[in-house]
Specification:
The protein has ten helices and no strands. It starts with 13 loop residues before the first helix and ends in a 13-residue tail after the last helix.
Length: 218
């Protein structure tokens, strides 16, 4: 069956479709998600959805691409030092803190996307889903790891397996954001989650330093 003609399509923004797809893929995975349910959640018909995205695989890839586009944008902004106040030496720490702050804000604002990413990492058996995630995540992880290993020399703990540390931190933040409140409290406790992340950055990622991160500075 061919794609419907443009004039027969109910107008719906790709953003609405991608938001609905994020929720459905997060709940059911790539194999379990149904295009009819995604279309209904976006307020359109299945044929109309297929006008915008030719297949479920295409929609899934676009959903992840949207998430990684946002993550890439905030990462590049932080690593360039945009808006960071730099004084008295290296720009590394302000840029690192901007990167962590941006990621925490993203996770808090996008719980459905966090659920989608966590599900794909740990529970989705669809090889296509995992391949798309790996393809999109690899360059971003490489850039952050390069920043820490090269520009963080003298700041990052010697001998730290940088990429593994980054992945552990990211998956922890995503998992906490994806969890519903009762489970989140049971697993992570009632303490401030962002504060715990900052503590991990300061005490596990970085070498001992007298400079506090901006969140804890008086």
């Amino acid at each position: 069956m061919g794609r419907p003609r443009a004039e027969t399509v109910t107008v719906a923004t790709p953003s609405r479709l991608l938001d609905a797809a994020s929720r459905e893929f997060a709940a059911r995975g790539l194999d379990g998600a149904r295009l009819a349910d995604i279309a209904a959640a976006a307020g359109i018909t299945r044929p109309s959805l297929l006008y915008h995205f030719a297949s479920k695989d295409d929609l899934y890839a676009a959903t992840l691409q949207q998430a990684f586009s946002s993550l890439s944008s905030l990462t590049l902004t932080a690593l360039r030092g945009d808006g960071a106040v730099v004084g008295g030496g290296s720009a590394f720490r302000p840029r690192l803190y901007a990167l962590v702050r941006g990621f925490l804000d993203f996770a808090a604002a996008e719980p459905a996307v966090c659920r989608l990413l966590v599900r794909t990492i740990v529970a989705d058996d669809n090889e296509r889903a995992r391949a798309v995630l790996a393809e999109l995540a690899a360059p971003l992880l490489a850039e952050v790891s390069r920043f820490l290993a090269e520009e963080g020399r003298g700041h990052v703990r010697p001998g730290l397996p940088v990429q593994a540390a980054v992945v552990n931190l990211i998956v922890g933040v995503l998992s906490r954001a994806a969890a519903e409140a009762p489970l989140r409290t049971a697993l992570w406790g009632a303490a401030d989650g962002d504060g715990a992340v900052w503590a991990v950055v300061e005490h596990a990622l970085l070498s001992p330093s007298s400079f506090p991160h901006p969140e804890s500075a008086p």
